[in-house]
Each structure stands twice: as C-alpha cells, then as structure tokens.
C-alpha cells in the first residue's frame, strides 16, 4: 500500500491544504484527511480537559482527605488547573456538553494520582467524584484559591 502525501509529509500536506483553503480551491482539498485531522483536534481538546480535571480532582481529594498534609504545591496546582479548565471551556463552549463524561474520566485519573502520591488505600477513596464540575471549579466550595496561600489555611 502506498502512503498518502498526508502520511508521508504531514507538514507539507498541511501547507498544501492551507494554500487550497486560502485560494478557495476545493478541488485541491483532501476531504477525508481534513475530516480525520479535525476530528483528532476535537479529541485533543477533550483529552486536555480530562487531563486537567484529573490533576484538579486528585489534588482536591488529597486536600479534603489529608488536611494535615496540605501544601502550597497542592494549593498552587488546584489554582492553576481551575484557571486552565475555565479558560479551556471558555475557548471551547461546546466541550461543556461533554463535562459529565470528562469529569468521570478525569476522576479515575485523579484517583490514580492520589494512590501514587499518598499511602491512602483505594477503598478509602470514593468510587465516583463527590463533586460536580461546578463545585470542583468553585473556590468558595473547596480549597479557596481566590486569595493567598495563608488564607487557604485559615
């Protein structure tokens, strides 16, 4: 089987497709390749949401289950992930329709993070996220990241 231009030289293929789009020349467009790449871009945005939710939920679990071990690192990670998730959802409002799936997928990743970083047994962790997406992103509900690190300990 002969490799397509798309497979042999992805960068060259992208340049070619961009030129065809600029020229409004649909006869030069690789319709199936474009469809494949656009679908991959959508999956990539979803994977980023799941990944960021995994880190956020893992640190929120540690924050809630180990109050005596709370650290500035956890606080900063929670703060960073909240901002990144909110930015991602603002830039991709349609991802909101997949929020429940992303939360469930991210929670599994978060549990794995907790298991790697703590001595907590799996049976001590909830089977599903105890929080909705809105609760996880709301600093007034969990780990107040609106202020300074010292404020979060109060």
What does the secondary structure layout of this molecule look like, with pairings?
Blueprint: H1 5-8, H2 10-22, H3 31-65, H4 72-91, H5 99-117, H6 133-137, H7 149-153
Helical segment count: 7
**What is the first-to-last residue Cα distance?**
65 Å
Overall geometric form: elongated
Determine Rg (CA atoms, Å). Answer: 21 Å
Poorly predicted runs of 5 or more residues: none
Overall domain count: 1
Number of strands: 0
Q: Sheet bearing the most strands, described?
A: none
Short description:
The protein is an all-alpha fold and 154 residues long. The chain has one domain (43-153). The protein contains seven helices and no strands.
Question: Can you describe this structure?
Answer:
It is a single chain. With 154 residues, the protein is mainly α. The chain has one domain. It has seven helices and no strands. The protein has helices at residues 5-8, 10-22, 31-65, 72-91, 99-117, 133-137, 149-153. The protein is elongated and about 65 Å long. The protein starts with a helix and ends with a helix. The mean pLDDT is 92.
Features:
154 residues, 7 helices, 66% helix, 0% strand
């Amino acid at each position: 089987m002969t490799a397509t231009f798309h497979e042999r030289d992805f960068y060259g293929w992208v340049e070619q497709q961009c030129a065809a789009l600029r020229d409004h020349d649909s006869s030069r467009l690789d319709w199936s390749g474009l469809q494949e790449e656009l679908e991959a871009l959508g999956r990539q945005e979803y994977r980023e949401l799941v990944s960021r939710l995994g880190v956020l939920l893992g640190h929120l679990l540690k924050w809630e289950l180990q109050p005596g071990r709370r650290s500035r690192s956890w606080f900063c990670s929670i703060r960073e992930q909240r901002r990144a998730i909110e930015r991602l959802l603002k830039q991709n409002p349609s991802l909101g329709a997949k929020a429940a799936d992303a939360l469930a997928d991210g929670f599994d990743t978060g549990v794995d993070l907790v298991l790697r970083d703590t001595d907590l047994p799996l049976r001590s962790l909830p089977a599903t996220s105890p929080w909705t997406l809105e609760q996880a992103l709301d600093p007034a509900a969990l780990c107040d990241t609106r202020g300074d690190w010292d404020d979060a300990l109060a």
